[in-house]
């Protein structure tokens, strides 16, 4: 049978400030009503049944992924949470072992969660043909026809002296990792290279054979049955990508399946240009934006008016709590900003002020360390978990709607312009049983105001078993 594996553990730091460590780009609804992860799953589910689709992530994103995929009919048992992040060789190998034990002849395709595909019918047709080739013990990688010289992508050079396999796939000659712009231009002129699309197809058993040969330590860990021993050995693994650990070492059995389907790897702010509509001056604009005498500039707004005037080849990304302005040629260096913010212990690298939750959203108005103020919105007929906090108390002031509040064994109905106090250590819940939005102001006070000070007892969104609790 055919299987799919979606890699959804990345932090998306080059898409800061839109993407944050606690809310990475694959979980954001950048295009339409679905997140990038949801788009990826829906695209794959057209040809692979839900029971055969796996998602690999880490404990930080387990909760959000569980909620996002549950509403699409995903089998939640197929969410695989790594013990600790060890790069793509380990995560792909982990799922290959699960599939191989379930189905010795199973063929698996591996997809990043943050790709954009414009021509989904073309994509599906190539995918079906590639699954058939993989049944012949062939290892395939999707190669994207280069549209421009790009130094942010890896390249694959094909061997044209070898006849294509079934007129579909070409023999790999070598990998070229993120060449400089001049070299990339020369490679494209030769007409024998493709971008490395990061999408792989092979039998699970074939991959495990390659891991056994080229990464024997990882192979040994994948076969470990003792949970305590597995954790210890997994944590001791080196962080190695599937490209470096396996693909570059088995070119003799590796083929490229060319793909021309409007593919974009949303790896940094420059790539958004190829997804958004561009105006006559080649500006890519999102949100409430006004441009004057501005050319080839990306402007991401959405929260208030953004005006770009007299600019060329620039990136502007505006969020409620952080603004990025940089030349397009510096887009790859956004990750350095995140590293600096992290070193300085700035919250902006970690958490946005506007945070989405399954029941609605909240916006942090103020956080002094001694008290925190939020504006909280609860969607109609949604409720937060039944929970308690050990180290903080909360004051709730309803400004819109009617809140049903449970504190201990008592229930209260709190209307607009009324308030209620939730003592530290008390079980509590707030819910919106009305047909319109509930909005309230939350003031937290106490010795510790972190989002991880929470113990859940009931939850509507499958979060009781999550590794990291949030409201």
Outline the structure in words.
The strands form 7 sheets. A 6-stranded antiparallel sheet has the order 18-19-20-28-23-26, with no helix packed on it. A 5-stranded mixed β-barrel has the order 6-9-7-8-10. Helix content is about 20%, strand content about 30%. With about 475 residues, it is α+β, with helices and mostly antiparallel strands. It is built from 10 helices and 29 strands. The protein folds into 3 domains: about 270 residues, Spore Coat Polysaccharide Biosynthesis Protein SpsA, Chain A, CATH 3.90.550.10; about 60 residues, no CATH class; about 110 residues, Jelly Rolls (Sandwich). Helix 3 packs across helix 6 and helix 6 packs across helix 7. The model has no long low-confidence stretch (mean pLDDT about 90). The longest helix is centred in the N-terminal third of the chain and has 16 residues. A hairpin with a 4-residue loop joins strand 16 and strand 17.
In terms of topology, how is this protein built?
Layout lengths: L1 E6 L28 H9 L8 E5 L4 H9 L8 E3 L5 H16 L4 E6 L2 E3 L2 H15 L4 E6 L10 E4 L11 E7 L4 H10 L2 E11 H11 L1 H7 L4 H9 L6 H4 L8 E6 L3 E3 L18 E3 L2 E4 L5 E3 L5 E4 L4 E5 L4 E5 L6 H10 L10 E4 L2 E8 L3 E8 L3 E2 L2 E3 L3 E9 L2 E5 L2 E5 L3 E5 L5 E5 L5 E9 L8 E4 L13
Parallel strand pairs: 1-2, 1-4, 2-3, 6-10, 12-14, 13-15, 14-16
Antiparallel strand pairs: 4-9, 5-11, 6-9, 7-8, 7-9, 8-10, 16-17, 18-19, 19-20, 20-28, 21-27, 22-29, 23-26, 23-28, 24-25, 24-27
Helix pairs in contact: 3-6, 6-7
């Amino acid at each position: 049978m055919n299987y799919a594996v979606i890699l959804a553990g990345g932090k998306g730091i080059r898409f800061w400030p839109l993407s944050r460590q606690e809310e990475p780009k694959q979980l954001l609804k950048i295009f339409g009503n679905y997140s990038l992860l949801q788009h990826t799953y829906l695209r794959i589910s057209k040809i692979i049944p839900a029971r055969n689709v796996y998602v690999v992530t880490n404990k930080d994103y387990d909760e959000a992924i569980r909620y996002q995929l549950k509403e699409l009919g995903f089998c939640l048992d197929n969410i695989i949470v790594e013990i600790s992040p060890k790069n793509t060789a380990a995560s792909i190998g982990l799922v290959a072992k699960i599939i191989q034990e379930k189905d010795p002849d199973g063929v698996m395709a591996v997809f990043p969660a943050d790709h954009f595909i414009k021509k989904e019918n073309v994509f599906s047709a190539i995918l079906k043909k590639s699954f058939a080739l993989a049944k012949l013990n062939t290892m395939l990688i999707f190669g994207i026809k280069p549209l421009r010289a790009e130094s942010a992508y890896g390249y694959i050079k094909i061997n044209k002296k070898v006849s294509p396999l079934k007129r579909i796939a070409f023999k790999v000659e070598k990998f070229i990792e993120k060449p400089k712009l001049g070299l990339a231009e020369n490679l494209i002129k030769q007409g024998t290279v493709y971008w490395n699309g990061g999408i792989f197809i092979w039998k699970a058993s074939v991959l495990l054979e390659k891991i056994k040969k080229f990464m024997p330590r990882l192979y040994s860990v994948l076969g470990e049955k003792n949970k305590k021993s597995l954790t210890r050995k997994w944590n001791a693994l080196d962080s190695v990508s599937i490209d470096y650990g396996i693909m570059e070492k088995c070119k003799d059995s590796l083929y490229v399946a060319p793909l021309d389907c409007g593919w974009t790897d949303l790896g940094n702010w420059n790539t958004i240009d190829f997804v958004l509509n561009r105006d006559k001056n080649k500006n890519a604009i999102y949100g409430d934006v006004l441009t004057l005498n501005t050319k080839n500039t990306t402007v991401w707004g959405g929260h208030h008016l953004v005006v770009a005037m007299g600019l060329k080849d620039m990136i502007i990304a505006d969020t409620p709590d952080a603004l990025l302005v940089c030349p397009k040629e510096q887009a790859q260096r956004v990750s350095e900003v995140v590293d600096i913010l992290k070193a300085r212990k700035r919250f902006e690298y970690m958490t946005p002020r506007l945070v989405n939750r399954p029941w609605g959203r909240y916006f942090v108005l103020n956080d002094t360390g001694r008290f925190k103020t939020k504006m909280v919105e609860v969607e109609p007929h949604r409720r937060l978990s039944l929970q308690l906090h050990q180290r903080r108390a909360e004051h709730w002031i309803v400004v819109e709607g009617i809140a049903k509040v449970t504190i201990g064994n008592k229930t209260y109905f709190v209307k607009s312009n009324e308030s209620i106090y939730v003592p530290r250590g008390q079980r509590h819940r707030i819910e919106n049983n009305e047909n319109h939005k509930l909005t309230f102001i939350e003031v937290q006070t106490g010795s510790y105001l972190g989002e991880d000070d929470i113990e859940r007892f009931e939850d509507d969104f499958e979060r009781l078993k999550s590794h990291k609790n949030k409201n």
